[in-house]
Every structure is written in structure tokens, then in C-alpha cells.
Batch of 4 targets.
Target 1
Amino acid sequence: MATSPAVVVPERVGPPVPAIDGIDGLQQRMRECETTEDWSFLLNDYLQWGNNTKVGKHVAIFNLGAAHDCPNRFTDRCQVDGDECYAVVDERRYDYVLAYMRRQEYLWDCLDAQTFADAFEAICARKRVEPRALKISQAGDVRHSADIRKLERIAQRLADLDVQVFTYTASTHLDWSGAEHVTVNRSNEHHEIGARRYLAVESEVAIPEDAVRCVFDEERAAGVPSDERTQCGECRLCIDADAPDVAVVK
Ligand code: SF4
């Protein structure tokens, strides 16, 4: 039987992380979790519903780690310099952001897919706004094949709730073939993984014929006020698997 290459050791950039602000508090809360309800309140503190700009409140965001530790930082898989990444700049400017992202990674590594999905389902049952999607990683990226397998199991479960798991990734060196329920937007050209390419171009004329422009980006360029633009969650081009390549103008 053919075997696929499995990357099982997390690739981290930068030095080891010996301490994370707030980790004692997180560990204490984890020790106190006994029920799905308990886990759901903890997980909800590490989810963001929308981001006040492009991502709407119907979409939960969870990061698998900090941009500082991103496996693609300073590699040719990433389209920007490792110190220019907007998320790295944010983490550098605000220490609490870096610590929060690292605690998210810690929580992700401690939670099995079943517990994560059960907790997420309990959160959805309490939401007033209809949950439509779970976006994985605004900063950082998928580290190894175990992340992909866990994401796939979560996505399978959340599909029953009509919540689609999607991600943007430069981790094109990994084997994504098992990610059938996760919508994968690849952000480089190295390998043809996922549902589509999500690319940044210099100008509107550079958008390839077989790609469509990001709806939010198009409205921004047309001068639509920020609070009237179509957000991710209302637009599903990157969320569903059957849309063409998507482009944004830098
Ligand atoms: S194309 Fe739609 S889903 Fe994708 S980033 Fe733009 S607004 Fe969001």
C-alpha cells in the first residue's frame, strides 16, 4: 500500500518558547473543566467571532499558534518577509496578543478533536447570531499532519451543524489529501493542494481570468463604507469548496 509522507514533528521558527504569559491561569482552568459545558466556556474565551473588519460575526476564528512561530515564516512558502507579516508586527507591538496566540496553540495541542467539537457545538447552541463557519488561523499556520487530521475530524463533526471549517495556508509542503471536509485556500503556488488558490496581485488587471476578486476587497476599492461591505460569512467564496480562485489587490 502506498504511504503518504507524514510530517509529525512540529516545525517551529525562532528559539524555543520557555514561558507564556497567562499559561498558569489557562492550565488551572483546564484542570477545573469537567463537563462539555466547562470546556465550551473555556474554548469560547479563545475564539473570536468576527474581527471587526473583514470577517463577520457568523464566523469563529481560532489560531493554531502565533505568527512568530509560524512554520512558514522566513521560508519561500510565505509571500512576505518574516518580519513584515502583519500578524508578526501586531504581536510585536502588543505582548498580550503574542501570549494569547501561544496559549491558543497550547489549548489546541491539549484538546482532542472530539472535545473541541463538542465544546464548539455547545457554544453554537448558546449563540444568538447563527454560526456559519470556523476560520482556522488568522495568524500562524498548520504545522504538521496531526493538525490536518485533527482539523478534518472537527470539520466532519461541525458539518452536521452546517458550520464549515476553512483555512488559508502556506503549508503546501504537507499532505492535505485527508482534508476532505476542510475548505483549504492555498496562498502560494508550490503545490496544488486544497480547493483553490487565494492570491494577492499588484493591480486589478493582474487578476487571472479564471479567478474572481474578493468581494470585500472589490467593495473597499469602490469606496463602499467599511460597515456596509460584504464580510466573510455573508460571502462564501473562500468558505465553500466549489468557488474559483480568489484574488485580492495589494
Ligand atoms: S472572497 Fe469572500 S470569503 Fe473570501 S476573503 Fe473575500 S469576502 Fe471573505
Target 2
Amino acid sequence: MKLFSRTLTFSTPFWMITASILGSVLSPIHTARAELPALPSRLIIGVDGVAYRTMQELQQEGFYKTFFPVSRTVSTFPSLSSIAWADILHTRAPLGYDRFHFHACQHGDMKHPTEFSGSILGSGDHEEAHDLWDYHIPSLLTFGTNVAPGKTIRLEMSKITEGFFSTQGKVTYYGYIVSTDNLQHNGGDVRPVLRWISGEVEKIAETYHQMTGQDLEIVIVSDHGNSLTARAKKVPLRQTLRAHGYHLTQKAKNSHDVAVGADGILSVFPVYVDASVQAEVANVLSEMAGVELVTERDAQNPNRIWIRRKSGAIGVIEKRVDEKGELFLRYSSISGDPLSYLPLVERLNLAGKTMSDGFVKNEDWKQASFDHEFPVALERIVKAHDSVAGTPAPIIVSLLDGHVIEFGAFMNVVQKLKHMGQTHGSLNSNSSNGILMSNRIPTVDTTTDRVTDQVSVSDFKH
Ligand SMILES: [Zn+2]
């Protein structure tokens, strides 16, 4: 917030004038350069929800031509901003997958064992990762991200430019644009404004070169992708649960209650339910219209996760950590191949990567599955039920593109009016694949937790 108040005191023409004066003063007199306070040598821009395939298309059109080819940043599962940015920036895992979490009530004793009970509550954790950026939109203006997202993106980019040219004595300037995601949630096409940003970053690089004689390093990263489907159907969650004797609620009081809650219109939702009915509820939801697959942490063995897909397809992921802390995973089919991972099992086997008991190093799974329809699924599913959020759900339902669930009365009205469909959250490649690109180094496909292997964020405002 401190930096933002400083950037407010500079108008756009001011930095441009400053830049051109400095440029003309600097170019003939090289000795003066060292005496001037240094600008950052690196600019990192976070663009929320920009999909890999969108950026690939723009580079094919000739935009972002000073950048190396875009690579994938595969999001967390669910592919949602709060947990994905926390994963990228290595901040504490939020309580829930987005701004809501399940708070379990634990009353009762041995004589009167507690019935399953708890509530969906707001978390207020969303801002922790956000506050690390040198620029992110102040809370007062976040309303604009939904009302006029296109204009707000331009404002955010301009503020990043101003902030960058008025920062000294810092290696990297970090700017965050949230409205790229909101624009898509509101049914807009993000490509025109991304083409405009391509021109803006080129201008920044040119001005920087004139001022310093150096080349500015620019990195652009996003946290997840987008389904890019214009209209979507709402899944019949309440009716499906009711037909099987369960009650959809945000306040669970017994083992017939199924607590579900999250933020907005999404293609994923976590389910909190009593352990005794968990497998049955997961099974019921896997057969619901619009569901792509359901993941369920085994009620007895947390190292085992069931994957269910329509028509009774069931697979299981098992995890094991060796004495050096290395993660090994095994995927096996009980019936069918819900993740379509059996061809990968075969390929890894042929490549000699499989141990005698069928386990494979996580790193090998990862490299084999970046371009799969469910990229890096095993590790992401395991983390989804374990460490990616403070209160992980026993069940997560991932929807097919073109299907959504909406939360809150306001969203209910919006969805009825607009049938909005551009969203994210699911395990599939459209929702999962964000971007990583640099004008300095060729990047490689990675996962949110490993972005910093390629892009150091050591001078982040920790
Ligand atoms: Zn979003």
C-alpha cells in the first residue's frame, strides 16, 4: 500500500517527461550514469487467469515478439487464484481454496461421539500473497474490476509503468494485474487488451534502454488458465444430492448434510462431508451431469486418493515419501482409466522409470504429463487433499468445460441472466495451464510451486 500511495503522486505524463529528460541527459555522458539512482533491472508482471493457449495464439499473431516462446505454468488443483499465487510466491497456504473454507466443529466426547458438523466461512486470506506486489489494485478500486474490467486493466498497467519508473534501489519491480481474470469471468475477450499490453511492455523496454543503455528483463506469469467457453450450464447439485437422501448446505449438522461453498462461478467445488458417507457421496457426484471427475481422499488412508469418473470408472493414486523426502506416486486402475493416464504408465514403464512396486518419481510423472489433458494430475490431486489449503476437502468435484456451479444469491441471478461460462478451477488443461514467459531466458513448462526455480523473487516485499 505504501508504494501505491507514492505512485499516486506521479501522473503518467510526469514519468514520460522524466524518462525523456533522463534519456537525453544520459546518452552522451556515460560517466553521469553511475551517479544517478538505479532503476530496477527487472520487471515481473503477474496477469491473473491468462491462459497458455491465449498467449500462444497472440505470439503466433506476432505479439510479445521480444519474448521467448511462452511456456506453461500448470496451476494448483483446484486451479484457483488464492492457492495458486500462494504456491507461486511461497506464502502460507490459505485456509480454503479461495476466499472460503470449511470450519469443522468438534464437540462431544467418547460417550456422545460428535456428529459431523461445521460451516462454510469466509477466510480473508486472499490478500496475503497480493500484498507482496509493489503494485496491485487498491481494495477501493476492486469494484471496477467487475464493472469495467477492460478499462481497469489499462489503469493497472499504467500504474505498473509509473511505479516501475519511479522506483529506485530495488532489483525487481513486481506488478500485478487482476482484471484480466475478471474480464474473462464477465464474458469478455481478453485478447485485445493483451495485444495492447504487448505494446506497453515494448515501450517500457525502449524507454528503459534510452535511459540506462541496458536491456530490461521482463517476465510475465499467470496463476491459471480459463475454460474460454462463452456460455455454461449450471450443474444440478442440489437436486442430485436430494435424490440420494442428502442435503446441500453451508452449515452441516449431521451425516446427511453435504457442505459446499466457494467464491463465484467456478468449474470446481470442494465438498465437506462425514467420513462414513464420503465414498457414497463421491460416487453419486461422479455420475452427475456436467462432472468431469471426482477426487476423494480415502477416509482411512490419507496416502490414497480415489478418482471417479462417469460410468463407474475408478482409479487410485497412492503416495509415498522416501527417507530423503522425495515424493513417489503410483496410479492404478480399478475399473477403466478415469484420468486417461494408463498410456503414461506404459510409457514410463518402457522408459525404465517405474520401480518394481509400480511407484514412479513425481518428477518423472511431471515431465511425462505437462501436455496431457489433465496436466501433472497426480501431484496436484495429492496436494489438493493435503497441503495446498489449510483445511483441505475430502472430496473435490472437477467439471467439464461448459458447466459451472455458482455460489451466493447474487451469482445465482447473474448466472440466470447471462449464462456466463468463462471460468476456471477444474483439473483440465484449459483451466490449469497459465503462462510463464521472459524476454531474457527461454523458460520451460513448470508448476506453480516451481516458477521461482526459473524466476527468482528474492527481493519480493517479504
Ligand atoms: Zn478467476
Target 3
Amino acid sequence: MEPNSREVRKCNLCHRRIFFALTKNGQWQALDAEAEPALGSVAAYRRGIRLWWCRSLLAADADEYPPHPLERRFTPHAQTCPGWKPQQQEITGIVVESSPRALPQRQQAAIEGRPSNVVPLQRRRSGSAT
Ligand SMILES: [Zn+2]
């Protein structure tokens, strides 16, 4: 079963054919419209009129539930879209800190080329307990 012409639309970024399927968490996931019987990492099936459900085949419990004969394997469009930008975008208007250290933090972020609202993790080494 393939998505029909009413379910397929074009990606806003690359204009390739995609369709949307609902995950068990209630999120819409964009999938490539052409099935990938061997390599697709998402199993999807039509649940109703213009409604597809999908689940990841990379999840921890995927081995317990192999693809059902009614499910088809698809690829998430985020994997194949050339216009997709997976890195975190800067959120304008968010101030990380209001303390006197905020200005060096922002300056350091600009020097390192990361958005100012992304704070690098600084962990104490496990062997250096005081
Ligand atoms: Zn795209």
C-alpha cells in the first residue's frame, strides 16, 4: 500500500514528494512517499481515510515487533531532504543569564561560533571528587 495522491504533498524545502504519518506519541512525521522495502527505518500503514500511522524500526522493542505484512517501510524525509538543517537554531529574544557573567558567556559563544543560547556542558571528572 502506497500513499495516494491526496495524501502526498511536496516538501516546502526541496519539493520532493512526502506524506505525513502519526507516531504513537501523537507527532506528525514526514516520510518519503516512495517506499523503501529493504532500508526504510519506519514502518507505516494506513489506519483510515488519509490517516497513516508509523513506528520506528530502530526502537528498542522493534525486534519484538517485526514489520507486519500490512506495514510498508519508508524513510524519514529528514534523512533525505537536502534543505533540512538539523543543527539547533538560535532562539531570538532569549537571554541565557542576567548575572555579570552573561556578557563573557555571549562573547565566548560568538568566538566559538555557536548560538548564544546554547550552553556547553561542563562536567566534573568522576575521579576528581573533593
Ligand atoms: Zn525536503
Target 4
Amino acid sequence: MDNTNDIDNFLLLLKKLKNLNDLETIFTVIDFLYLYDKNKFKFLSKLKLLNNFIIVKNILTTISFYPKENWEDALSQSQIKSKLWLIDELKKLNLKFDLVYNLASWYNILALFLSEYLNVKKVKSFDKDPNVLNVSDRMIHHRLIDNFNYKTTIMDIFDINYSCHNYKTTRCQLDGIIKEFEITNESPDLIINCSCEHLNYEKWLQLIPKDKIVILQNNNAFNFSDHINCVNNLQEFVTKCDLSEIYYQGTLHLQNYDRFMIIGTT
Ligand SMILES: C[S@@+](CC[C@H](N)C(=O)[O-])C[C@H]1O[C@@H](n2cnc3c(N)ncnc32)[C@H](O)[C@@H]1O
């Protein structure tokens, strides 16, 4: 949305939407908006895949703060289904973990899902793009106040020490001043990377200590310029990751491509 009038009108609508108090009413309004303009409101209609009030409310609030971000992509049916798939398969495995590292985390929608669908205590998200910091923290705003149990940090995932991580993270205070905080001796017991297509994950996996539980996603959507490391099929992905044990491996057939997921230990 580039036109200023369009954005203003859209923002007004979003402010009204995010103040509604139940999912049913929010979805009814979204249905009307979608009927009114299928192109403009297509991505909002995908929120109907999410049967959780806090998740929908947080996403709407974040969009209203940052309307120019790429919500069409982040809230596409394929992106949402891929993350719901991860939550479903993780739930089935019944693993125990306290601290999750959510890597190349983009707008942090997965952290919001981990919080609300699985009630995970701590999720630390890392992305190298400084532009996503505020969007990402806004997405899990209700958890952020909770002693940094949920927090995004701008960092290249190749610079993380996965055995014992000491690092600084920043947060914008209510008075607008950016404050720096030190975090010491962190060691995640679950590491998630849903952006394998965006990086040299074979090299990155060598940084992970033995016996860590990892969840990895990749896809065969070769036609995007920033997808530099796609795979043709699940078997190719499994071979390239070379994990010592696999708890789950699968393919999700989406509208325009397939997504592959492996859950296992390094
Ligand atoms: C388009 S997004 C996410 C796509 C993914 N399928 C998903 O839904 O989570 C890819 C993200 O990876 C991040 N990224 C790529 N390489 C990275 C790296 N080496 N360290 C940290 N973040 C990285 C980018 O900044 C971007 O936010």
C-alpha cells in the first residue's frame, strides 16, 4: 500500500478492528472487508486460519503500528500453514524444553504461536535485519514485559554461541530512549530455523553443539531471488542436514510450492 490516503483509511479500519473484543466479530468484519476489496484485504482474511484471540489481536495491532511491512507475504496462507504445521508436529512429540531460539525470525509470528499455542516459557528470537526489531518485539509485546523471557535481538545467526551465549540486546523504553541489556550464559534446548532457504544452513548447522534438538524448514520455491539454498525434495534436505537422530520429517504441499520440515537432534 503506497498511497497515503489508502494507508490512512486502512489504519483507521485496523484501529477499529483491533479494538473489537471477540474473534467472531473480528472475522465477520474481515469477511465484509474482503468482499469489499478482495485484493487489498486478502491477507487479513488469512487470519481466519488462527483460532486464537490474542494471536489475532497482536497481529492486527502490529500491522496497525507498521502498515508498510510485507504483510501479504508474512500472512500468506502458505506462511501461516507452515507455522501451524510446526506447532502441530511439535505438540505431538511432547518434548520438554524451556528456552527456544527462534532464528532468522522475521516478524516473529512463530514466537507468538509458541507463546499462545504451546505456552513456551522463553523464546529468544534473532534476525540480522535491524528493520524487523520493533515489528518483531511488538508482535510478542504482552510477553516482552515479562523479564525478557521473549525478546528479539538483531544478530547474524552465524555469530551466536549455541553452547553458552553472552550478548547485548536493546529495547526502546516508553520515554523513547533505547536501553541496552546484557544477557549471559544462555543455552537453548530447542533451536528453530524456518528460513533455511535463505542461508547456508549446512555451514550453520556445524555451529550447533551435539545433541541439541533442532527444527528446520526449507522449501522448493526456487523462483525468489533471496531463496539461495532451496532443495528439490525432503530427501535432499534430510541428506544435507545430516542430523544424528530424526523424530519427524515431512512435506507440506502448499499452493505454489512444497515446504519440508525435519525435527531431530544434531
Ligand atoms: C523472509 S524471512 C522468513 C522466511 C521463513 N520462511 C519464515 O517464514 O520464517 C527470512 C528472514 O531471514 C533473515 N536472515 C537471513 N539470513 C540470516 C542470518 N544469517 N542471520 C539472521 N537472520 C537472517 C532475514 O533477515 C529475514 O528476516
